[in-house]
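Consider the following assembly input.
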Amino acid sequence: MKFLGLVWSNLKRKKLRTALTVLSILVAFLLFGFLCAIKEAFTAGVTLAGVDRLVVRHKVSLIQSLPASYEQRIAGMPGIAAVAGQSWFGGIYQDPKNFFASIPVDPEKFLDMFPEYSLPAEQKQAWLKTRNGAIVGKTTLDRFKWKIGDHVPLTSPIWGEPQGQSHWDFEIVGSFTGMKKGTDTTSLIFRYDYFDEAKTRNKGEIGWFTVRIQNPDQAAEIARKIDEEFANSPYETKAEPEGAFAAGFAQQIGDIGKIVIAVLSAVFFTILLVAGNTMAQAVRERTEEIGVLKAMGFTNELVLVLVLLESCVLAAVGGFAGLGLAWLATLGGSPAPAMLPIFYIPTRSLITGAGIVLALGVIAGALPAFTAMRLRIAEALRRNA
Amino acid sequence: MNWLSQILSVSLFNLRTIPERKGSAAAAAIGIAGVVAVLVGVLAIAEGFRKTMTVSSAPDVAIVMRSGADSEMTSGFSRDEVRVLKDAPGVARNAQGPLASAELFVIIDLPKRSTGTSANVPLRGLEVQAFDVRGNVQMTQGRRFESGKNEIIVGAGAAREFAGLNLGQEIRIGLNTWSVVGIFTAGGGVAESEVWCDAAVLQPAYHREDNFQSVYARLTSAGAFTQFKDALTTNPQLKVKVLRLSEFYAEQSTAVIEFITTIGVAIAALMAVGALFGALNTMYSAVAARTREIATLRALGFGTGAVVVSVLLESIVLALGGGVLGATASYLAFDGFTAATMNFQTFSQITFAFAVTPSLLAMAIVWATTLGLIGGLLPAIRAARLPIAAGLRET
Amino acid sequence: MTNSNPSLVKIQGVSKAFRRGSEEIHVLDRLDLEVQQGEFLALMGPSGSGKSTLLNLIGGLDRAGTGSVEIGGERIDQLSDRALAAWRARHVGFVFQFYNLMAVLSAERNVELPLLLTHLSKKERMQHVEVALKVVGLAHRTHHFPRQLSGGEQQRVGIARAIVTDPTLLLCDEPTGDLDRKSGDEILGLLQTLNREQGKTIVMVTHDPHASARASRIVYLDKGQLSTQPPA
C-alpha cells in the first residue's frame, strides 16, 4: 500500500497528540480485554458445557441432595450412556477466603464423564488405591504451593467433621489440567466412598448427577423422561442440559453480560469522542494540504480513504496494543482466584475486539474524512493566502 | 496589577474562548463524564447492596447460630437447644413469652421474571414472635400467614424479581402447595428478598422435624447484648456463635461489596487514564491555539503564574462540567434501579436497589476535579515556558 | 498572434461570480482566452481581479458559471469530479506562491506524491523523482524536510513536484511572490528553461512586472475582461 507512508508521516506530525490518542485507545481495549475475561469467568461453563450431558438435581433446589440409588435407576433408562454423581462439599482450607470448589465423586465414573480433565495414568492409579486421596486442579495446587504427597486438612461448615476428628484429611495423589482452554482447574476432587463413610448425616445421598446421553438431539426428551421417572416421589428431580444449567447459574449472579456491555458502551463512547476529536483537529489544520493533494489529482474518494486510513491506523496501533496487553496480563492468571476461578480472554472476544478496533477507526474518522472529501480545492488553497 | 486580578482577568479571557473550541472542549468534558458515570454506576451497585444488608439491622436484635457456621445454611439447633437460647438473660419478653424466633432457612427454585431462568430464592420458616423481633415488617398487601397452614408471605423485592409470587397465587414446592397470602416490606432490608412461612409447617415439608437453623432475639436493650452473648457462650451445653444482626449482615456482605468496589474502581481508574489522555490532548491544543495570545499577554507584563493558573482553571472547569454531567446522568439512570444477585454465603438471591448516595456524588466530583487538575497541569507548564519572542511570531 | 502552434488552452465565454453577502461580484465576465502549445503566458492584474480564479478554471480546480474550458481538445468543464481529478493528475502541474509542500514529508517524498496516483513501481517512481530534482537543481537535498530548506529551495521542490509526472501544462500562481529578488530570478529562469527546453506550456499568474518580463506573452485581467494592454 503505497499511501501508507503518507498516512504514517501525517500521524507523526503531532507526535504528542498521536501518542495521547493511541494511549487512550490502548486503555479502552485493555479494559475491553479485562471485561471480556470477567464475563467469560462467569459464563465459561455455558460455552464449555458438553452438548451430550445433562445435569439432574433435586427439583426444589441445588442444596438438597438425591438418593445415591438414583444413579442405577437413571443409568438403566433408554438413551443414557453414563451417569456420574457429584456433591458440594464446601471445604475450607485454613480461611474461608481461600475458597475453591471441593467435590466428592466416583473417580472412574467422574474421569470418564469429564474427559476435559486430564490426569496422568499413574496418578489415577494412585487415586484408586488411596481412600482419602484427592486430585487438585493445577491452578489451586500452584496457588497454595502444594505438592503431590502433601496432606491437606479441610473443614466443612456444611458437613461438619468426621466423627472424632477436627478436620477432613486429604492426601494429594494427583493434579489435573484442562484439555480445553477455560476449563476450571481450581477444584479439589476426592472420593465419594471416603466422604459417605465419614459424614454424619445425609448418608447415601448425592448432590447431583451428570448424565451422558447417546444422542444430543434427544436432550430435551430424555430430561423430561428422567423428571417423569421421579415425579411424585419425596425426591423429585429437575434435569436440564449442562449448558442451560450453567447459564442459569451465571444468571443468578446477575446479568453480567448486560453490565459488561453497558460499561463498555460508556468506555467506547468516550474513546470515540477522543479519537474523533483528534482526527477532526488533524483534518482542520491540514486544509491547505488536502487542497494541494486534490489539485495534484487525488480524487475526493482517495482523500476520504486516506483520512479513514489514518484514523484506522491510529485505532489499530492503540487497539491491538491494548488487546495484546490484556491478553498478556491474563496469561498471568486470575487476580482473584476465589471469585474468578477462570480468567482468560476467549479467542472469539479477541476477534470481536479486532472488529471493534476497525469500527472505531472508521467511525472516529468518518466525519473528518467526509469533511476532507467535501473540501473545495479553490477555497482550501485560498485559506493560505 | 496584583496577582489575583491578573489571574482573574486571564482566566476569564480563556474561559470566554471555550465556545470557539467547543468540539474539542466537549470531547474532553464528555470523556470525564463517561468516567464518572461508570464509577458512580458500578459503586451504586455496591452501595445499594450495602444499604440493603445494613438498613434493617436494629442494634438490639441478635442472631444465634451454631459455632463454626458461616451462615444460617450451615447452622443447626435442636428444639431443646432453642428452648435454652430463648430463655437466656437479656432477651426481651411480651405477654406470649420471650421475643425470640427459632427459624429455618431453605432455598427454593423460582424463575426470575427478567430472564425466566431459575434462581435460588430463600424460603424462611419463622415463629410468630418473629414479627415483633424484627419490628419493621409491614404488610403492604394481604395478611400474615396463619400458624399451621401452607401459607406464605413474600418480601416486596422477591415479589418484584421472581415470577409466581403475586398475592393469591399458589406455588408448588416439592410435594406441597403453598398460597401467597401477603406481601411485606421490611424497611428495605434483606428480609424483603425472602419468602416467609410458618416454621412448624416447613419442618415436616423438609424432613427437619425438631430442627432449626438460627434464633433471632430482641434484647431488652442494645446494651444487653454482652450479657446475652456471655450467658450463651459460657454455657457448656451449647456450642453457639452470637452476633448482633448488624455484625452478621456486615459479615455476609463484605465479600460481595469488596468485589464490586474493587472491580468498579479498577474499571473507572483505567477509564480515567484513557479520558485523561483525551483531556491532555484538548488542553495541549488549547494552549497551542493560543500561543500567540499567551505570548502577547506575557509581553504585556502578565506573569507566568497567571498563565499557569488560568490554564489549570480552564481544565478544571471543563472537567467539573463533565463530572456534574456524568454524576447527574448516572443518578438519573441508576438510582433506585432494582436488581438481584447471589449471596454466596447463603447460596441464595438478594434483591436490592442501586443507591447513588450523596457521598458517591461527592466522590465523582473529586475524581473529575483531579482529572481536570492533572489534565491541565502539563499543558499549563508548557504555556508558561513558551518563549515570548517566538510565540509572538506564531500564526 | 502569428503562432502556428495549435491551441492548448481554449476558453470561451467563461463567467464566474462570487457572492459576498447579498452582493454578487462578477470576477470573470464572458471571457475568452487561447494559449498556444509551448507558450509562456503571464497573467497580470490588480489584486482581486480574478487571476487566480482564471488559473483555477484552467487547472480544473474550480468550475465556471457559464462558458467552455477546453484543454488539449478536451472539454474539462464537462468532466465529472472524479474524471477531472484523473485529468489533473495526467496533464497539469501546479506551482503555488507558498510552495504548499507537506511539512511531514522529505523533499523526495513530496515530489513523489503525484506519482502515487500512477501505476509506476516504487523503483520507477524514485527514478522519476531523481530526474525531476536534478532538473530543478536539488539533487543534493533529497532527504531534507521543507523546514530545512530556504524559500527558493522549497519552491524548486514545488516545481519538481509539478513536473515529475511530465504534464503538458504548468500553472504557476505567483511563484515568486514570497521570494527575494535573487531566488525569484532563479525560479523564473528555471521556468523559462522548462518552457524552452522541455516545451512546457506555462501559465503564470503574477503582479510583478519583473516576473512577467520573462514570459513570451502578457495578458492583463481587469473588470472581468482580458486585454493585451495594462489597465490605465
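Chain B touches chain A through 59 residues (CB under 8 Å). Ask yourself how this observation constrains the way the partners meet.
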